[in-house]
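Protein Entry — a single chain follows
Next Lines — sequence and tokenised fold
***
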Amino acid sequence: MFPLRFDVAGTSVEVPVRTLLNAGYAGRSQDDVAAHVAELAELGVPAPTRTPCLYPVAPYLAMQTGEVPAQHGRTSGEAEWALVIAGPREEDVLLTVACDHTDRALEVHGVAWSKQAGPDVLGSRAWRLVDVADRIDSLTLSAHVGGRRLQHGSLGELLTPAYWLDELRGLGLAEEGTVLLSGTIPMDAEVDQFADPWRVELADPATGDVLTCEYTVRQLPEPIA
């Protein structure tokens, strides 16, 4: 078990991560998702057999860190929200900001492999899902890399936390220690996603509150072999 710690309205909540899941192809419009799958197929990324997808990855990849080591220069993040189940009650389900750092060179060989090759970086603050559930679609996600905005959109573009909680219940995974990342929103093709550093924000326009996670990418030395 790998504990994460969140500041939730001034209270520290510790969650030992037992199950870590990355959602993929999780846009609210599955017609748009199908078009995106076709675009990726042209780049050599294998098409999924169904959408949306869930990719189980090692629990130790859920991190709260300011640095991400990478083996080469073709890795990049994705702005996402994360569900964190911190206990058995409805009010124990947390929502926070996350960045799924993915190996793009490995992605063409298998999306699940590419997710396993990098961490899921989560913010240090979280909201209780019940406190924002009535306005979930108005929350916004954005990512900045190398000082430029790479992504910006609303949670209305993605399948909802409620949708994924139902999926987790059906899989028997709606239990303490489960963390699920949402999948991401479109990237601006004019911005270099392989730049550095990364900053992702999950904002609530109704209150002005913003959850953040940020980190730098450190390229590892060449192998000695």
